[in-house]
What does this fold into?
Amino acid sequence: MTNAFRPNRSLTGQAWTILLGVEAALFLLAWTFGDAYSIPGPYDVLQALGKAIREDGLLYELGVSFRINAEALAISTVISVGLAWLSVLPSVRPIVAVLSRARFLGLAGFVTVFTFAFGGGHALKVSLLTFGISVFFLTSMASVIASIPRADWDQARSLRMSEWRSVWEIAVLGKADETFEMFRQNAAIGWVMLTMVEGLVRSEGGVGGILLNSTRYRNFAAVFAVQIAVALLGAGQDRLIAYIKDKVCPHSALTLERN
Amino acid sequence: MGFNDLANQALEGSDPAHETRHSRVGQYSLGEVLVRTTDVTLSFQNKDNPDDPPKIVLKPTSIEVRDIVRPGLAQGQVIGLLGPSGIGKSQFSRILAGLQKPTSGQVLVSDFEKDKTGATLRPVEAGHVGMVAQDYPLFRWRTVLGNLIVALEHTTLSRKDKVAKATEYLQLFDVSELAEKYPAQLSGGQRQRIAIIRQLLCAEHFIVMDEPFTGLDPISKEIVCEVINKVATLHEHNTIFVVAHDITALCQISDQLWLFGRDRDEQDRVIPGATVKTKFDLIERGLAWQPGIYETQPFTDFVREVRQEFRHL
It folds into this structure.
């Protein structure tokens, strides 16, 4: 067990079980007996979770939010990854640079413009979320493509590949594992932004609406319940993407110390 | 007549091809020109200050490699490129491999696709001359077999034939069991062999190896030398350019050894721009094609001579 407190050591399965058990117990103890006004106890949260599922349709709202997030994520992926791959063209790089800077802009400032451009309700939510995810996704993906060393391109050229074939081999296939990783991170960022977007556009509902209503009425137990539900769904989504990445890119974990 | 004289004579228009020659290691003749560089130069303009004079890396460099024909043998050859660090050897090898355009001059290589004898020359393009970089790069996302098959993409072979040819080469180099492994699962020596096989499959006969001995222990160096010699003797036209700092290892495998150096002015200051200053013909000296030659006194004396020359580059 002493390895748990030394850097870069590995643990046996049994040691992991003990470690996780102890940390979970400490967390539950602190949560149960902690004396913070704004943090409800585990029992209250469980009760609120049950109520939210039965009376507020939490599962349905989660489904609505998941669908919006998935839709925005799909569009963002096409835009961001496509533009990042195309950043091999000097003519596209200024566009990428400008769009990357847009990550400093607040979503609230785009509500009116996007309403005119895409309409209200569902389309507005998806467009706002797509914008929010894309600027971060594009920045990270463009950085991945820009950091490809010359030796990698040379390797492809030395195998008689044309420049476009080299782009396919090096930037698309070669960076597939990193693309999956960026996708995973931005899928999570999508959930963070989603509640904000659902707060800005209340039509269709979604967990963002429940969260904001519960916060307004200081129903902290309900807030925690929704947060836990979102975290569990997000963790499942994270796990699924990681699983697909491992299946599609089995090479990516071969050199890691923590296998 | 030494190699320098032969090369100069060829460049001046005289044709010593197929002239039978006798060296201490046997009879041979020089065949078709396989690789020729004509007044290749390389310089870089300072992008921040375009008014600055360009940085000259290579002065006009003309070299020629002719096929070495030995009766009854498939005799490829190894050309060693030696020179101090940062002098421009790697840039020259990139030019040879068609990965870097020279500022002026031309590189021609035999066009085996048009003429199997190698008599027809064509301007080099990336892929005509294979490049095995120092860290033996492979596509880490492809298996070993996948890495080899992708090298045959330019051919008209069917997928089945590509797999068969790649498998044949894996067997030839005793690494068949690695076919389904990923590069991350290979040792350094295995990576090197796969990288060489891949370039052999793609470039067919010409390979440039950049610093293949760096960081290797003496035993590993010997293994690398064996692999290079094996590749050289696989086919009559196989020509391997080895860029390295290790004088002994390079002398051990080379048939020709070219020393890159720079001129000096009257105050003994280096004049920018390197070129091939000295060429050693190890065949003429009887130091090529003989197993165990590196344990003999003539070889030791030769290494000392090269080392002496190296100090003045």
